[in-house]
Each structure stands twice: as structure tokens, then as C-alpha cells.
Hints:
Thrombin, subunit H, six-stranded antiparallel barrel, 1 helix, globular, Trypsin-like serine protease, mainly beta, Peptidase_S1_PA
Amino acid sequence: MFDLVLLRLGTKLESSLPIDPFPAPIDTHVKAYSYHGTTIRPNSTPVVESTWQDCKVSFYTDGRGREAKTGTYDMLQCLHFDHLPSAGSSGGPILDAKTQAVVGIIRGWEHAGGKLRGFASPAESLFECFSLPGLPEEVD
């Protein structure tokens, strides 16, 4: 199951974030999107308040929750990172701190093994999602 929305806006966006098709290695320094709220004032554009949180890739798991390794034939279903995402951050990007490319899409957080941590869909699953039959070749 994916927590991702394809949103088409009426105006053309200036640019988009690059997506890294390869999984970020364990201990890679990443930045996770952190949503803090939206300010809405009469007769003005809503302002989204957010920050980028420094964190690291902790490990990956497969579809059964077993630890999976990058650079192998293991299926990488979930990227786990050492930051607790805030409410409303789901669907936000995780960027490689060095390249600024998207390496994951935040899905939520969990309490496991006595630790709180975030989990995300690896960016490579975006490529799989858009290669499904019935989806358009290009997104305007």
C-alpha cells in the first residue's frame, strides 16, 4: 500500500525535486520533511510551515518486515530512518543531504525495539508505481 497522491495544479510549477532511482545506503545522511502547520488568513494564500530534519537511513525491510539489504536481490519495501516525523508529514520527501535527490516518501512512524523511528517508501517504488499498466507515459 502506498501513501502517495498525484496532484495536478492549475499552474505550471517552477521545478521539481530529482528522484534517485537507487536506494540510499545505510547510515546515509538524509533530510526528512517535517510539517508544522498551515496558516490561513482571509484574502491571502495559505502559508505552509515546515522544516527539514537531519537524520540517517537506519535499515530497510521487505514485504514481510524482515531486514533487507541494498545491493542484493532483496525487495526493499520500507526505508526506516532515525527521526520521528511530525503529524501531517506523511507523503513528504526524504532527501539525500548531499545530492538533494528524493530517496524516500514518508509514510509514518513506529515504536519497535524500544525506539521511535520513521518509515518511508523507498524512491525506487515511485518508478515501479509509474510503470504500472494504465498510467500515462508522461505527467503534465
